[in-house]
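Protein in question kept underneath.
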Amino acid sequence: MKYLILGAGPSGLVFANMLKDLGETSYLVLESEETAGGLCRSVMCDGSPLDIGGGHFLDVRRPAVCEYLFRYMPESEWDKYDRDSRIDIGGQEVGHPLEANIWQLDTETQIEYLISIARAGSALGEPKPELFTEWIRWKLGDRITDDYMLPYNSKMFGDNLDRLGTYWLDKLPDVSLEDTLRSCLMHKAYARQPGHAQFYYPHSYGYGEVWLRLADALGDHIEYGRKVCAVDVEKHIVRTADGSIYQADQVITTIPWRSVDELTGLPDELSAAVDSLVSTSIVIDYKPETLDTAAQWIYCPDPDIDYHRILVRSNFVPGGRGYWTETRSERYRGDSGYYNEYAYPLNTVEKPAIIESLLTYAAEHGVYGLGRWGEHMHYNSDVVVERAMDLARRIAGAGGKI
């Protein structure tokens, strides 16, 4: 076929449907699971939906993305929410981001936090450090670093945090000392708020429903139970675990590069570099108890608790009760739950150079990495939809290759 798309998560599904919209007919999607959606899949659990890949939703900040998805699942089937995210600090829920909401703590603790922020390297004009742990301390001060940032990130990404780069930390909310002081005096958060301040979530289904509808729109252009085990980048040949062999003019991969057992057609140095890409796995576990909170997300830095965050289903799933936890698999203490082998790509120090070289070389040979796993970037679903729409337009507009 002309286009072979690996993976029926959000990016693969949108790319395929965009090809369909643009008049292409020679394309096929391969999906290892028996249903579409990737990390955004949902199941029914205890009478209401559970997102088995963690807390996913549709951000409102990209209108073109929302309009596109509303073609498959009309806006009337979604509810719109103001996001309420909190951090559990010593048993007390404090709004997120912490530095904008320390006014919710007692007066003495506020004073301690303010002094710590004032002494941070960024406030004193000191140069940015290169190590992750030192950067966090430089940016936010000792108290926020020790009480929240280091323990939380260790729970989510592993104990060796200095293997992470600092190039991605600009996404942290930028709250100045002045804004923090002002928030304490006025008892309200100031400065730029974190992303996802508003979001859509289906009122009768889980988030996975919209992706099922995109998959249905593809008809027989999608095959399930096709786990990719070999990819030849130069010859565009793909083999699946059941022995099926496919060849295409162009291959678009949205699956983890490291998940392919036989990745050939790459220079030796790139093959070795792919092996150094790092990710984490998580377990999603449902709890039927109803929590006494209005929060939808609660971040839990306490190292004595295995999970790193709670999603309070009853506060954004109509008719839902209970909550679910998200835990890095190495920390998980339960015996059930939904295991996600590939959950978060890690932003290691060497990753940008590896991915740039890999994606450049692959694209020159007609293989394109797309989405969270194809680009090994911690993208949310709205971002991968936008990127899939853009890539489909560029490829189709260039006669099949860019």
Summary: The two ends are 18 Å apart (CA to CA). The chain has two domains: 3-84+200-397, 97-186. The chain is about 30% helix and 20% strand. The chain has a mean pLDDT of 93.
